[in-house]
Design brief:
The chain is an alpha/beta fold. The chain contains 13 helices and 5 strands. It has 2 domains: 2-111 and 231-285, Nucleotidyltransferase, domain 5 (2-Layer Sandwich); 113-183 and 199-222, no CATH class. Helix 2 crosses helix 12 (254-272), helix 6 packs antiparallel against helix 7 and helix 7 runs antiparallel to helix 8.
């Protein structure tokens, strides 16, 4: 076994070994999927993948203990359903607001506030509206309050503190409504065409509209301390895929992309669980694959906070 890792292998031989290694990981992938379906909180995300002559996608589903990367030719609902986690999931799904996730109404949804802050920064830098600066400061203030409460061993914020935060949130939305006149453009053909709107103004208006309609999802971390402020865990799990593309340029075949995702899912999961990467890879080659440990967490009760 040591000779295998020390010797220089031809590209063809290495590809054959990796293909065989990926083939040994069917059972670990099933266990990872099972663990994700039973987790109280999961993060989901997707990123583009350069294939030979086309653009594919990689979908990630992750917790602090489990990682699942899946290669797909599409980004939206058909691919998400085919992965077969969200259709059965009943916990909290954290994501960046991609509309395809919203169709799964049997679970609760939380939006990634890192994305919200980035969009607020763009609006502040381009048009400097007061409401956006106030909203950014408020979200960060709530995060600090939640972090301090968790450090003190508390399970929730005081009702008066939450009421204060909600009041400030609604005041910022009201200020945005006064600035833009309306946050949602009416669909369909209007009798009178609307006045031309700059891209910068439209970005601010649309963000304010999203903050209004998705308030419960955006502030779920304030009501439920098990929900993270952002979806950075999922983004970190996709980072190695981007590094791979920077080095190799693209995947030559869809099969190669699938094998890479399976191997990366296994290695990332075992690393999260405190296992040595080399130890786990050797176990696969030796035919004694180390299985992921599952923390069987009961899904949280479905229902949005008032």
């Amino acid at each position: 076994m040591n000779n295998l890792f020390n010797c220089h292998l031809s590209p063809g031989t290495l590809a054959t070994l990796l293909k065989g290694c990926a083939g040994e990981l069917v059972e670990p992938m099933m266990l990872i999927k099972e663990g994700l379906r039973k987790s109280a909180v999961i993060g989901v995300d997707e990123t583009s993948l350069r294939g030979k002559g086309r653009q594919d996608w990689v979908h990630v589903t992750a917790t602090d203990q489990l990682t699942l990367l899946v290669h797909a030719q599409r980004r939206g609902a058909p691919a998400i359903s085919e992965i077969d986690i969200l259709p059965q999931y009943q916990g909290v799904c954290v994501h960046d607001g991609f509309s395809s996730y919203d169709q799964y109404g049997q679970c609760r949804h939380a939006q990634c506030n890192a994305h919200i802050l980035r969009e607020l920064n763009y609006v502040i830098e381009t048009s400097q509206p007061q409401w956006a600066a106030e909203m950014k400061a408020l979200l960060l203030e709530i995060k600090v309050a939640v972090d301090k409460a968790c450090e003190s061993g508390k399970e929730k914020l005081a009702p008066c503190r939450k009421a204060e935060f909600l009041r400030k949130y609604d005041e910022s939305i009201e200020a945005a409504t006064k600035q833009y006149g309306t946050l949602q453009r009416k669909k369909g053909r209007a009798k009178k065409p609307p006045a031309a709107e700059s891209a910068i103004r439209a970005a601010g208006r649309k963000l304010a509209g999203r903050l209004k309609t998705k308030r419960a999802d955006i502030l779920l971390f304030m009501h439920d301390f098990s929900v993270p402020f952002d979806n950075n865990q999922s983004e970190r799990d996709l980072r190695m895929l981007k590094v791979k593309q920077q080095i190799s340029g693209c995947f030559r075949t869809g099969v190669g992309a699938q094998e890479f995702c399976r191997l990366r899912s296994y290695v990332a999961t075992m690393k999260k669980q405190g296992r040595s990467v080399m130890e786990t890879i050797k176990s696969v080659f030796a035919g004694t694959t180390i299985m992921p440990a599952l923390r069987m967490l009961e899904p949280v009760t479905v229902g949005l906070p008032k």
